[in-house]
Design brief:
Four copies of one chain form a homotetramer.
Chain A lengths: L4 H8 L4 E2 L10 H9 L12 H13 L6 E5 L2 H12 L4 E6 L3 H4 L4 H4 L4 E4 L8 H8 L9 E8 L10 H13 L4 E4 L3 H5 L8 H7 L2 E5 L9 E5 L8 H7 L8 H12 L2 H22 L3 E2 L7 E7 H7 L3 E2 L1 E6 L2 E7 L6 H12 L2
Parallel strand pairs in A: 1-11, 3-4, 3-5, 5-6, 6-7
Antiparallel strand pairs in A: 2-8, 7-8, 9-10, 10-13, 12-13
Helix pairs in contact in A: 2-12, 3-12, 7-8, 13-15
């Protein structure tokens, strides 16, 4: 939510263990190894290489849909702004949760493409079909931007996970009002690994018009895979990628990473490890009756510490401070592909000792 | 200039040797090694880490100027659009050569930020102080965009290299008319390695208001280092990087690479190898009296082959077709950090055999 | 707020008396007469004529400030988007009340220039220095747009009027955080005519960085006069007017109207008539204990009718339906320069008969 | 082309007769009279009134097409930017002549909406089907903006007039490549009055996807009527008008004027008078063997005077200086609805006396 002050203090003490986000280390070793192995191969540029083609094929298979288009971009903000600007006409707005990444954490990237973000209130980042319907059934009014698409995150910025039933309800509204549905999957792997989740890639490829499979936060060096399902939204997407600075010259780097993710299940394994680590920590917090303020079934825990607890732990760990509530401080703790079991065990011991 | 059709054919025959551009392979081994070595270190995100700080310090030293700001972005189009939008007011335009990357090769990325590109005619990508002065001394006219900055490339998209005297003349005009001067250094290393070049990084840090040191085309996996010299242009640059999707989550990847480039001269060594390889090929072409249509003192050769010569060579090599002139075809050939001596020797032998 | 359905029904019955807004008729007769009188005079275009110069001089005198720049635009949305885009850098946002015209009624015109509108909650359209301070003192965060200016309306979209003390408090915050203060004066005349108002044009020319004096809603055929006080915001404003389609070819039409407004007090006389008419109606509503839901000291009354009252009145009058509350309907009633005393008397009689 | 310096000098001497452009006076008396007559009528706002409806009906009849949509905007730049941004996707560019109003005279208004203007060289403002085809058949290239529509002016900025045959050829290319054709008719009336013109409104309503009928330069106070023929381009146009500041509150002013234009042929009468006046002047220039540098069959004459001739005439007249050629100066002379016969006769006498 804001730049981590804890992090600055941590720069001076590299012994601290960082749980502040899910991108503190480089890439999963299998991914990095593939980048090293393919380093000397010559390929054409801008994602027209064999690795990108192979990765796209693997993703099509994982989505059980050979009619989708797959494109690879470097980061999440870049992906969101490219997808959204490719879909909307100038007077159209994107509907999003108040907590949506595009509403809170992208420095007005969507507005910079000319479009308003119409926000729907939510605590945990999930919005409902009913709420969306209320927005889109307001009287026709040329003095207000027209809703043109829907943006959701799976899992959400606060760890919420949509069920398939919820997504189908949203899809019904989206279809009725001709609004493309776009899901930001920056943490999609962690959603799949959550016990709250009953959706698969194939489900998303049926429900969404566009979605992306996040790599950066799930163990890639960098990279997000955009899946365009809706035929009408496919045209000229690469032009807009290039125009927004998102067509990587050595595009094969993205292809190589997503090949590694989807060749034999690495994407899911990475996410499952992270969620398993988070669930261990959750159990320790529950045992100490320390409150988790949002759903805690993915790799993100939002923990309410009292001042004494917080002071004790930040001697050894870095969390992302979220907000202050009276004498308490709420922090975000993330696990990821790289979280060592021993760090988790040490943290649990320290929690038990609070 | 256009998407390489030769490249498509090459996908089916991976035995072909690619000289079509300077980004056909991954990264220089020393750079890749540093990425591997630092993979497990935890750092804060978004370029606030120690590697970015260290790389910035090394670049400040190389520029002999501790007052500059250094920022790292992923690619060239992203860098150009971010820098330019950070400088101009809405009604201001950027002056550029007709051949400038922003004018020809970025899908209208600058216009997409709202600004016109005012082009000045040139063959080899170089424009003069005199030409710029002619543009900016036109009568005040609120019905036309106002020139707001100058964009050059060093070396240019066609291998031209500005001398220090030429840049100083341009700078004098820029100063007189209060126009920030921005140099696109996507191939800056190759300019430095050219016998035509008498400028250094320290010179650029005196002459430019902003410039960037290109990594992607000079042996990085990806990455460009923006150097902001003019105090007035420094404010809030990171906000605009983030807004345009250019603030890499694992920003340390950029820091690590530029540390490797500037710790002990790797950036120059890489470029010198590439230019040396190009000069060997040039000598062979000269010996056969095959025409080079543009200056040929950097890593790019623009070669005019007749149809027979072209057909013979594309059995074994991939070039970038540039344009057709009667029965001749003009192609671009690039060398880079990764061009093996044996490939060059084989190509020379094949040229001699034409 | 939304397109008036009542109005559509009214098209079929031109006998209805319209109170739905303050722009149902053409121009005040004195203004129209001046347009007729000057019709055959030849002038240069685009606002460089003598009438625009004379009108600007009159406004400078009325503002008691000869250092201001005065520009004339056709309408309010055009004015707001031109002023705001002329001030902000790309990553900057404008702070506005949730009810502000730019937030609710301009089809995302500000976002279409690339900027987010950061809204502060309010009922009657007024926000406080304290609220603004809370927004601008949030921790520095490159992941969110940076507040870059403040937008207020005087009087507000719901009839609220800022006192001089309130504006001075806001100005103190604006100065402290280097945020230009822009006041939308679409209904500025009506504010001046309100008993709640203790500010003058000269006050605004001290307190604001930019403001505009609304003509369209105060009896002009069309037109708004932008006053730029802050020296730094004056540069090149006409370029941006032209770029956004706001530089009227026959600009003299705007000059002629504002000359008429400010030569001998017409602007104030027009507004005073409108407010006097509104106050008469207010007295009748008060006598019937019919609720006015917002402040009612300008030309706008927001009236809560029950269904029966509403049905009775809309047989003869057009109001702007605002929202439904249970069995009640809240409507907006506007008076203006053209509201005949006899219409007001008839309405009062009909209110008394309810 | 540039702000008229001659005009500044003319401000000091109001006795000078202005021929610098076609918007030096107010409105044609019949139009102004209708504005006066309708001043007290109450109507709903934003172009939803009966006058706009009636004017639209008259234009449909004049176009012999009841399926078109008609919208009214205030000025030409506003109209061009609104139409173009309503049509293009972000990566698409508009093809225009180098001399097109959007390319030379709108302060980058189109670029400010995010789109590049691809220019085709021309002297008199006319481009050919062949030239357009050459642009749109360049190889597919995601690194360049994609042509998305065609912009022409009838008559052109230099008095050129397209024949129906030329337009049909362009239309064939436009259709083949799925490029909407948009004609800027700022001076459409004058084209119709030209002996070079064999097209009618009904022709344009068959050939164009969108065009506009210019009012401002043909005797309105202000106003342009957009005609949308292509069904696909009609959707939500009013939203974009509002967003760009082009939805006039008292929209009826536009309706009233175009009603007057099209009720009984006023639009054509106005233009015929202007062209007749221009042809008289042309005859006098021809008799003196003074060169007309561009086609001279509409209301614009581009005249090459020598220095002595020029100095003699500008004692009494204002022209728009266009450019200097050695000792000669080329100026633009415009006639319009308001050009008195006696002024023309005086000018002719003065030409004869040169």
């Amino acid at each position: 939510m804001f730049e981590n002050t804890n992090a600055k203090q941590a720069m001076k003490n590299p012994e601290l263990i960082r749980f502040e986000n899910d991108y503190t280390r480089g890439a999963h070793p299998e991914i990095l190894q593939r980048i090293v192995e393919t380093n000397e191969v010559q390929t054409p540029g801008y994602g027209t290489d064999e690795h990108c083609a192979a990765a796209a094929d693997l993703i099509k298979r994982a989505c059980d849909n050979s009619d989708i288009d797959v494109h690879f971009l470097v980061g999440g903000t870049q992906t969101n702004l490219t997808v959204i600007t490719s879909i909307l006409r100038p007077h159209e707005a994107v509907i999003a949760p108040t907590t949506g990444h595009i509403a809170t954490s992208e420095t007005g990237a969507i507005e910079a493409t000319g479009h308003k973000v119409i926000t729907i209130p939510t605590d945990i980042g999930k919005i409902t079909a009913e709420q969306i319907k209320a927005v889109v059934t307001m009287p026709e009014n040329v003095h207000a931007p027209k809703p043109g698409m829907i943006f959701l995150s799976q899992s959400t910025e606060f760890g919420g996970v949509y069920t398939k039933a919820e997504l189908l309800e949203i899809k019904a509204v989206a279809n009725k009002f001709d609004l493309p549905l776009f899901i930001d999957g920056a943490r999609l792997g962690y959603a799949f690994a959550s016990e709250d989740c009953d959706t698969t890639l194939a489900d998303l490829a049926e429900i969404c018009d566009v979605f992306y499979i996040g790599g950066t936060k799930v163990g890639a060096l960098f990279g997000e895979a955009v899946v365009i399902v809706n035929e009408k939204l496919k045209r000229d997407f690469r032009y807009i990628m290039k125009q927004r600075g998102g067509l990587l010259a050595k595009g094969r780097l993205l292809g190589v990473q997503f090949e590694a993710f989807f060749k034999d299940g690495l994407y899911n394994r990475v996410a499952e490890h992270a969620v398993a680590m988070a669930m261990k920590i959750k159990a320790a917090l529950d045992a100490k009756e320390i409150t988790l303020v949002y759903p805690a079934t993915t790799n993100q825990l939002f923990i309410k510490f009292n001042a004494k607890q917080y002071e004790a732990l930040v001697e050894r760990y870095v969390f992302a401070p979220w907000r202050v509530e009276g004498d308490n401080i709420i922090v975000r703790l993330c696990t990821d592909w790289s979280t060592p079991v021993e760090h988790v065990e040490q943290l649990i011991a320290d929690i038990e000792a609070l």
